[in-house]
Design a protein that fits this description.
By secondary structure, the protein is mainly alpha-helical. The protein is built from 15 helices and two strands. The protein has one domain (3-259). It has a two-stranded antiparallel ribbon with strand order 1-2. The longest helix has 27 residues, at 46-72. It is globular and about 55 Å long. The model is unreliable at 1-22 (pLDDT under 50).
């Protein structure tokens, strides 16, 4: 057997093995979660509905990063830049051109896909920490670019732009927050289904082959350059849609809302949720939204330190995040059934 054939043989399992459990929840669990997401907003106040909306939006952004890192093995610390591009695309189209909010979402997705794909081209020569540093530079530069005088007429400069939250259409008796929550839920579910199917497709297997062994993937005929840039583009596009939804939910965009801190939060959410496990994205989003509030409730003066301790405990006890907890629960259920 030649050296190339040995590489192919070693990488074959990585391409073909796409376990369903690595991507989705069971049918029963999925239905329970969906039912909760549909029913709970009917019995809570608007502030809770707003928090649930942000949970879905950040979950979508974490999912996008999971496709890039968990799917193709590329590290990015620049997702806040794509989030900002999506948010500003929606804000500019709605406030300057009176475009319907629903039509701004695909526009933001396409623009961010193009930006991510073009950024992925020069990033092909980078990997590991070097790629992370390149994306870090993008995240750091984006807030400053949005403050440029040349763009101030469109972006509002330092002051930002106010975005109008839409009313429910066709006279549906729902508040703005409730309607937008269900609208966001529909978009997130559609993108989640798309993402699962993507990772199960030929392109998804190519992503994971590159993640597991780039040389083996190339030997098997995978166009490494194309699929790496495609992963960047898809991840950026989904993040852009999340940014669009976030701009409408918050009703405001400003450069300082999209700093490097946001990129770190999304990366943290991916790790807590479980790298490569798409359902964990919502768990990671819940962590980055609610745990800082819990830490502040424990000690306002030392909220940062408390948050750090809580994060350390999570990483130490469950290093593989929510995915590890789900697998342990799955393994325990059959034993209880037998007993």
């Amino acid at each position: 057997m030649s050296a190339a054939e040995e590489v192919v043989a070693e990488g074959h399992q990585a391409v073909e093995a796409v376990p369903k459990r690595a991507m989705t929840l069971g049918t029963g669990t999925s239905l329970v979660v969906l039912a909760a997401l549909l029913i709970v907003p009917m019995f809570v106040k608007n502030f809770i509905i707003f928090q649930m909306t942000m949970l879905l939006i950040y979950g979508l952004a974490v999912l996008a990063l999971n496709i890039l890192t968990g799917g193709s093995g590329q590290f990015s610390l620049g997702q806040s830049a794509f989030y900002a591009v999506g948010a500003y695309t929606t804000a500019v189209l709605m406030e300057h051109f009176n475009v319907n909010y629903a039509l701004t979402l695909p526009t933001a997705g396409v623009i961010c896909f193009a930006v991510g794909f073009l950024f992925g081209k020069p990033a092909l020569r980078l990997s590991g920490v070097y790629l992370a540093l390149a994306t870090f530079a993008l995240a750091t530069a984006m807030p400053q670019l949005l403050k440029l005088n040349v763009l101030e007429h469109w972006t509002g400069g330092v002051q930002g732009l106010i975005v109008t939250k839409p009313d429910a259409p066709f006279g549906i008796p729902l508040s703005q927050d409730t309607w937008f929550y269900y609208f966001t839920l529909a978009i997130v579910l559609a993108i989640y289904i798309f993402s699962v199917n993507l990772l199960r497709s030929r392109s998804g297997r190519a992503f994971m082959a590159i993640r597991d062994n780039e040389i083996a993937a190339s030997a098997m005929g995978v166009d490494v350059a194309l699929y790496k840039t495609l992963a960047f583009g898809v991840s950026a596009g989904i993040t852009g849609v999340a940014g669009s939804l976030g701009a409408i939910a918050v009703q405001f965009v400003a450069p300082d809302s999209f700093t490097f801190t946001l990129a770190i939060s999304l990366f943290l959410g991916m790790v807590v949720g479980g790298v490569g496990w798409l359902p964990g994205s919502i768990v990671g989003a819940a962590f980055i939204i609610f745990v800082p509030n819990i830490a502040e409730g424990i000690s306002k003066g030392l909220s940062g330190a408390v948050f750090g301790v809580l994060l350390f405990l999570v990483i130490y006890l469950v290093p593989h995040g929510a995915r590890q907890v789900a697998l342990l629960s799955q393994n325990l259920l059959p034993r209880r059934t037998k007993d």
